[in-house]
Design brief:
Bound molecules: zinc ion
Number of strands: 26
């Protein structure tokens, strides 16, 4: 059991942190008995814990008592743990004289950790404030420069490592569904399902440029084939006939994803009304934001995707900023399809700090907007669904990968080979930490002039080979709710044994959970260079109940 001693104002952040790191814990009580005490106060409260983790960027009372030299750095540092960089947004303390250096500040290589002991108790000083960092990321998200860091997942991994290597086992319910390596949510934003509706607007001009000159440039750079060139030039020449209704509208047909994803499920986010750009957002002109279609225009395709077991959510226009407009938008989709809409992603990924509360008032179960337009990665610092601070029920399913961010010249502008390198690395990261990798492949990305369907098929192949659970956004969020509602209790370690009990709902048709027991390790070789942590854990399937004793 972990006891947590923090300031009262940090309690909501701590509670959410321990939904992401689902291990037995409680706020520190004077009569509590803990294996581990995590403290962010400058004074450590009375307790008998064997291990105290003191996370603080300032100078604490134990630092002064131990005569520890503390150097403070103001906001914005990078720490390194086992070769992995962890961005820190608040202050950092380093301990220049420390010989215990599993974590160091990147630019100076000074240790950001210090180990002390008194009697049989170990005190580890970590030079940043874990919950201030967590709160900052949950509220503000990460800048695009740190997109590649799953920072919250890294904080959890570091904390787990500090505990197990200090000789104490950790039990948790990891964000990994039973029988699968992790979760993947395939999603499709429906922005341009009908080319005919874009006569002489910026979308048509952009299409013509990219299909003709853009494709020639891409052939010269080795990024498109001559086959693509021929297909795109043919599409450009056919354009007048498409407008006259004499040729097939080649953007019509996003429901081809159903065949491409045969046997898998995905989620389609649909815009409720045409020609309405919505409210402005700082730094964005809005007139181009209006979609040239209406949910009723794509009803047959959406009915096909629904009947194949997929989900339809709202691609909101004003729902992010106005809950009564949000109700109207959601109801329009619900009434058109005769199907309840439970989730939303805002068109152009508009959101601000008030958005979660606005969406919660509409009654959405989840939002899937928190991601980047300009890059791919972890804006929310995690692959897990989480509850935005200040909301009671809404979960955020963060968005990680968007096709346009990968390939558009004014975004990352990657070749397919470079995109593959980047995404396969992200897949490795989610496979390591668990969670739900959320991907947005737009409606027209499988048509001229993009032809990103080949890459998408390759991505699906890779994900299938990893044994993932392909879930709709609603299913993934329901699974995370089940994990949040599950209980896990563990006694303190006695005589090399630990008793553990866990319970979860089993009657929902979703994959089960698992209880993971991380075995205690040691700080091997030298303190300065601990051995890389091995996956020294065992898993126990959790369908409804686990009641067992594990011996080390
Ligand atoms: Zn959109």
């Amino acid at each position: 059991m972990i006891g947590v001693a923090v300031q009262p104002t940090e309690q909501d952040v701590v509670a959410e942190f321990f939904e992401l790191f689902k291990t037995p814990w409680e706020f520190h009580r004077n009569d509590g008995r803990y294996d581990v005490l995590i403290c962010t106060r400058e004074q450590v409260p009375q307790n008998a814990a064997k291990l105290v983790l003191l996370y603080c960027a300032g100078t604490t009372e134990p630092d002064t008592e131990a005569g520890l030299s503390v150097k403070s750095r103001r906001g914005g540092s990078m720490l390194v743990h086992e070769g992995v960089r962890i961005p820190i947004y608040g202050d950092v303390a380093t301990f220049p004289g420390s010989r215990f250096a599993p974590v160091a500040e990147a630019s100076t290589a000074e240790p950001a950790t210090f180990a002390g002991s008194s009697g049989n108790r170990t005190v580890l000083r970590i030079g940043y404030d874990l919950f201030k960092e967590t709160g900052h990321i949950l509220r503000a998200g990460q800048p695009a420069a740190n997109a590649e860091s799953a920072t919250l997942d890294l904080h959890i991994a570091l904390l787990r490592d500090l505990i197990t290597k200090s000789g104490i086992p950790v039990v948790e319910i990891p964000p990994v569904p039973e029988g699968h390596s992790f979760i993947v949510c395939l999603t499709h934003d429906i922005d341009h399902p009908v080319l005919r509706n874009h006569c002489c607007d910026h979308t048509m001009v952009g299409f013509l440029y990219r299909a003709t000159i853009g494709t020639v440039i891409n052939v010269c750079r080795g990024r498109k084939s001559f086959r693509d060139l021929r297909a795109n030039w043919t599409a450009a020449l056919m354009l007048p006939f498409v407008y006259l209704g004499m040729a097939k509208d080649f953007w019509r047909g996003f429901d081809r994803y159903v065949e491409m994803e045969a046997g898998l499920t995905s989620t389609y986010f649909v815009i409720p009304t045409r020609d309405y750009p919505g409210r402005p957002f700082v730094g964005n002109g809005v007139s181009r934001r209006a979609a040239r279609y209406d949910v009723t225009d794509v009803r047959p395709q959406l009915q096909k995707v629904l009947s194949s077991g997929c989900e339809v959510g709202l691609h909101g226009i004003d729902a992010w900023v106005d809950s009564s407009k949000g109700c109207e938008e959601r109801d329009r989709v619900t009434q058109t399809l005769g199907e309840t809409v439970t989730g939303v992603r805002t068109h152009w990924l508009f959101f601000d700090e008030k958005t979660p509360a606005v969406l919660e008032r509409v009654g959405f179960s989840y939002d899937s907007t928190v991601g980047y337009n300009e890059t791919v990665g972890y804006r929310a610092g995690t692959a897990q669904a989480y509850k935005p601070l200040g909301t009671a029920n809404l979960l955020e399913l963060p968005l990680h990968i968007m096709d346009t961010a990968l390939f558009y010249p004014n975004r990352l502008n990657l070749s397919e080979a470079d995109a593959e390198k980047l995404l396969w690395k992200m897949i490795d990261s989610v496979a390591k930490f668990g969670g739900a990798l959320t991907i947005n492949w737009h409606d027209r990305s499988i048509a001229p002039e993009r032809f990103w369907d080949g890459f998408y098929r390759k991505l699906l192949c890779e994900l299938k080979s990893r044994g993932v659970w392909f879930a709709t956004a609603d299913q993934a969020v329901s699974w995370f709710r089940k994990r949040r509602a599950a209980t896990i209790e563990a006694g303190n370690v006695e005589g090399g044994k630990i008793k553990l009990q866990a319970a979860a709902s089993a009657k929902d048709g979703l994959p089960g959970l698992r209880v993971r027991v991380h075995k205690p390790g040691t700080w091997t070789s030298t303190e300065k260079a601990p051995a890389p942590s091995s996956p020294a854990f065992m898993d126990i399937g959790l369908r409804d109940k686990v009641d067992t004793e594990v011996e080390f």
